[in-house]
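Why should sequence recovery work at all? Because a backbone constrains its sequence more than one might expect. Tight turns favour small or flexible residues, buried strands favour hydrophobic ones, and helices have their own preferences. The token representation captures these environments compactly. In the example below, the structure is given first.
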């Protein structure tokens, strides 16, 4: 019921407000965001979200606003109206009152038109448009879907978006000017002018060209040829950029394959030599011995300390020795001697008998 109410009651007044905002922006004949923001503040457009009370109505109305404003960034609207629609989506996304924020649904079939709008703005150095679009992308404001709005079985809730003819883009105005009907009208007006001039003005005075219709047709054809050349040059540049990207990617893949093959060959070796550092050097034969000769390094201070004092935690080696016995008398310490017909052992206190 809330969705039906939003579609029936909220869509029409909101669409009229959007067209009023874009109409004022169209009168400025500019695509600067400064001009659009001034009109936004003057109309106080962010207050469109203040009319709903419940959270469910707020979310449904926010979806409706994005669905309505989304239509203005797509053809057949003019470039200025599409830019204004992008600015309007940016303002609505940042002023919505619900949390988490509702995202802007963009259908995949329309993504090419959006990218083409940004490319055209970038080629014309309209950096305001590119900046606003990048801000929306960085904020993750877009929700890429198959359809621009949810499909339901309720046909009464579907809203038909009618294109405003004042905002429609006339792509080929020169072709309309040089059409057959227009050239015939110009020829008739020019012939009537010549008849009036002969009857009232001397023949020597002339304001317009004698072959005006041919001149208009020639200028229109030259302009169309120039436009086709510009389009062909843009296509060639895009093809060159794509070929350069493909060549750079293939070159990067080739370098990665060479590096992986080199590292794979260098890492192979016996288990006893895996801890050693493998160096692959390309040099002259005379310098091979100098490059691969390994100098014998002296032992470190830690190793020398362990050799002298031993490692920490190990028991210190004890040496048994006697103060009063010489080295040559150590063997005689255990030999029995005869004294006054008694045999004594030097190591014992009592006679052995």
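From this structural description, the recovered sequence reads:
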């Amino acid at each position: 019921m809330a969705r039906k109410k939003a579609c029936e009651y909220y869509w029409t007044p909101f669409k009229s407000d959007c067209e009023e905002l874009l109409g004022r922006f169209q009168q400025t004949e500019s695509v600067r965001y400064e001009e659009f923001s001034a009109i936004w503040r003057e109309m106080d457009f962010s207050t469109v979200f203040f009319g709903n009370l419940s959270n469910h109505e707020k979310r449904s109305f926010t979806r409706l606003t994005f669905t309505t404003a989304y239509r203005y960034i797509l053809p057949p609207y003019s470039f200025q109206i599409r830019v204004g629609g992008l600015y309007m989506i940016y303002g609505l996304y940042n002023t919505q009152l619900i949390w988490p924020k509702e995202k802007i649904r963009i259908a995949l079939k329309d993504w090419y038109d959006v990218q083409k709008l940004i490319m055209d703005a970038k080629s014309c150095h309209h950096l305001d448009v590119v900046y606003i679009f990048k801000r929306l992308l960085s904020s993750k404001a877009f929700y890429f879907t198959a359809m621009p709005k949810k499909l339901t079985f309720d046909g009464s809730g579907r809203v038909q978006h009618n294109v405003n003819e004042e905002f429609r883009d006339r792509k080929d105005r020169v072709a309309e000017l040089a059409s057959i009907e227009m050239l015939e009208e110009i020829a008739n007006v020019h012939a009537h002018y010549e008849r009036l001039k002969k009857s009232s003005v001397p023949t020597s005075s002339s304001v317009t060209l004698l072959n005006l219709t041919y001149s208009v047709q020639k200028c229109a054809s030259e302009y169309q040829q120039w436009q086709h050349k510009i389009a062909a040059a843009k296509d060639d540049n895009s093809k060159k950029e794509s070929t350069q990207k493909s060549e750079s990617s293939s070159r990067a893949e080739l370098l990665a394959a060479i590096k992986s093959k080199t590292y794979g060959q260098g890492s192979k070796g016996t288990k006893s030599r895996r801890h050693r550092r493998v160096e692959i050097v390309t040099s002259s034969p005379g310098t091979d011995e100098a490059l691969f000769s390994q100098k014998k390094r002296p032992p470190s201070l830690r190793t020398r300390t362990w050799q002298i004092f031993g490692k920490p935690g190990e028991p210190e080696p004890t040496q048994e020795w006697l103060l009063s016995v010489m080295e040559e008398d150590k063997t005689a310490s255990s030999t029995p001697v005869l004294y006054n017909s008694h045999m004594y052992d030097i190591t014992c206190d009592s006679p052995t008998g």
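A few observations help interpret the result. Residues 2-171 form one domain.
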